[in-house]
Every structure is written in C-alpha cells, then in structure tokens.
Amino acid sequence: MADDQPPKRPQQGADAGWAAIGYLLSGMLIWGGVGWLIDKWLGLPNVGLLIGLIGGGAAGVYLIIKRLDG
Fold first, then answer.
1. pLDDT digits 0-9 by tens, 5-60
2. What is the pLDDT of residue 15?
3. What is the pLDDT of residue 39?
4. Which whole-number Å values give the CA distances from 3 to 6, 11, 28, 35, in the listed order?
5. Residue 1: is its pLDDT beyond 60?
6. Which residue, 6, 19, 31, 46, has most beta carbons within 10 Å?
7. Are 26 and 55 in contact (CB under 8 A)?
8. How far apart are CA 55 and CA 36, in angstroms?
9. How far apart are CA 61 and CA 42, in angstroms?
10. Closest by CA position to 53, among listed 22, 23, 20, 31
C-alpha cells in the first residue's frame, strides 16, 4: 500500500523561497537565543550570541541545500 503514494515533487517558486526564509530565520533565532542565554548565564559580552547567530545561519543554509537539492 505504500507504493500507491504519488511521487514527491520538488519545491518550486514561492514555496522554495518561503522554506528558505523559514530555515534561515528559525536557525538564527533559535541558536542566537541559545547563545544569548549562555551569555547571560556566564556573564559574557555577547560572544555566545554572535556564535549562535553564525552557527544558526550556517545550519539554515545547510538545511536549505539539503532540502532543495533533492
């Protein structure tokens, strides 16, 4: 019965654009927030926030490439 499913079509146009924006923003917000919390916990001057934003952006780009590549 699993063979009855239609083939998955690749995202096109606005769907792919919104997915890309969602991945980038959510990665930066989540990991930037984690970095900010670590900064507050350890009393650092926004080092964790910067690392979280960069890491979240990189993770978002990775997920975009992985999802849109096929």
1. 776 666 678 888 898 999 999 999 999 999 999 999 999 999 999 999 999 999 99
2. 85
3. 95
4. 8, 21, 38, 44
5. no
6. 31
7. no
8. 13
9. 29
10. 31
| Beta-carbon contacts of residue 33 (< 8 Å; ≥ 6 apart) | 52
- Contact (Cβ atoms closer than 8 angstroms) between residue 2 and residue 59: no
Q: Which two tokens stand for residue 42?
A: 């350890």
H-helix or E-strand spanning residue 47: helix 47-69
Q: Which pLDDT score, from 0 to 100, does residue 5 have?
A: 74
